[in-house]
Amino acid sequence: MRRGSRSAGPRLQRVDGGIHLHGDWTLAALRPRLMVLRHQLGTHRQNAVWDLSQVSRLDAFGALLLWRTWGGSYPETLIMPPALANSFERISHAPIVEEPRPARLERLLTRIGKGALNIVDNLRGMVELIGHIVDEVCRLPWHPREIPLRETSAAFYKDVVCALPIAALLGFLIGIVLSYLSALQLQNFGAETFLINILGLGVIRELGPVLVSILVAGRSGSAITAQIGVMRVTEEIDALAAMGVSRYQRLILPKVLGLTLGMPLLVAWTSAAAMIGGSFSAWMQLNIDLVSFFERLPAVVPIANIGIGLVKGAVFGLAIALLACHFGMRIKPNTESLSSHTTTSVVASITVVILLDAIFAVLTRTIGVAR
Amino acid sequence: MKAATLPVELVDVHTRFGKQVVHDGISLGIHAGELLALIGGSGEGKTTLIRHIAGLSKPDRGEVRLFGQPFAAGTYNERRLRRQRFGMLFQHGALFSALNVFDNVAFPLREVGGLHADEIHTLVMSRLALVELDPQQAWLMPSQLSGGMVKRVALARALALEPELLLLDEPTAGLDPERAAGFVKLVRNLHDSLGLTVVFVTHDVDTLLALSSRVAVLADHRILACETVEEIMCLTHPFIDNFFHAYHRRDEPMTPWAR
């Protein structure tokens, strides 16, 4: 029965009542035949004669596999070279320590409590952040040298100028789609000329600012959060503080200023692109030529709407920048925290922008709408 | 037994970053069971060399052989099995920050597949005991660990699959002398009990003296010498003089500074 050749793979043989193990009993060697060997081991009794003298190598996993077969103690008759005993020693003394887990109700309550405290903590952090920024802004006029002009300019370039192409494309396409769909409906009532009213009001007052905000929240908001977060993880922010440089002044204020000042411009640009897209579509669909489209536009859309759109843009930009910085400062030094806070930052920004938009709609309901 | 194959063999390795030459023809054989230290000035490419060995980067010319075979040889599965035969300890630990200590050590075991959860549990706990960590610390996150503990957990992870070869990049950097000495002792014990081959990069003389059985000196983009520490200390070369200078001076009695 005994095969003469000696292969490195683990083998198990029953030889007149005894069990002989051969070859390498290591994880790498066991892995390909693990199912079969588990089954073979399972059929053998602990009180058989176990002969390990032919085992060439034994690692912790091999030892563990045998140890579990034996039910957690050495079998009565075991032939084993002393060199292998080390592996058994190591795994037989490994403690079983379960992860401490509180009871289910306790877990639930802790979760609710933590969630509530987290909201309070976030609100407090936000108030603190705004306080620091206001403090900086009030101090800077007396120290004009410290106004972070370069940083603001850099933030403006990165968050606004670089977003111009994608914003234009977005606006143009939305303008075309909106104009096309509206035109189809308006044709049914013979009210084609009202297309200009719908597009003008809808885009300049509502869609333009909200669309740009969503774009900027996804594009710049996430970048700001991740950047500040990584700077926290790598202790760069602490390095700034150690040099006596205020992070609010150098890091946060430029981003807040850049977005607050830049967003209205981005809104104007996107709305313009949407109007151009809309006018093209109107020309194709309803045969309203471009000149009369843009001649009628100021007549049917009161100028106040542009003001509302731009103010919205500034407020939304401010909100996005504040939230992005706020969540960035809360990132803890691990990858999980970085990803979850970046997600939270974008989701919170978009939610807040839409909430603010609703508030604007209520406050400005009598302004710039022809009745 | 076949004729002993070297765990690591570097044959005429050339590396350059852009125009900067890092390795200019390095050949080195590392024998099974030895503790080989790589020393050299900064920018001499010690870490790059250990990354070559681990297959994380490739030399521009020359060959790195692991267990007698070039790195790219064999099928996907063979390459993976070869990779499981060595463990690497990164300079800053490189623990997965989103996983706790237990899951970090369990990660390579779970990758193998086919192991039961309680088997993994026992194996992880035995690895943690091996690096002298308390079982209660298994549930901590990497951000809650001190520098010395991070190194121990990283070592436990590198040892999870019981590799034959252990690569250590600056094992004692960032540890205070006492912890460094403890860590060196730990690696020595593991070397003795598991029969490991250890290759490590260091610039700490204490670590070098306490751990190495042979020292390879990287200087002028080549292996200057590969001997025991005593023999290396007899050589005269500006780098070697400098390296051991501080150590020699420390043995002299301290003279009080100007009174």
TrEMBL record, chain B:
Residues 8-245 form the ABC transporter domain. The keyword Membrane applies. GO terms for molecular function: ATP binding. Pfam families: ABC_tran (PF00005). PROSITE patterns: ABC_TRANSPORTER_2 (PS50893). Keywords: ATP-binding, Cell membrane, Membrane, Nucleotide-binding, Transport. Coiled coil: none annotated. It comes from the Bacteria. This is ATP-binding cassette domain-containing protein.
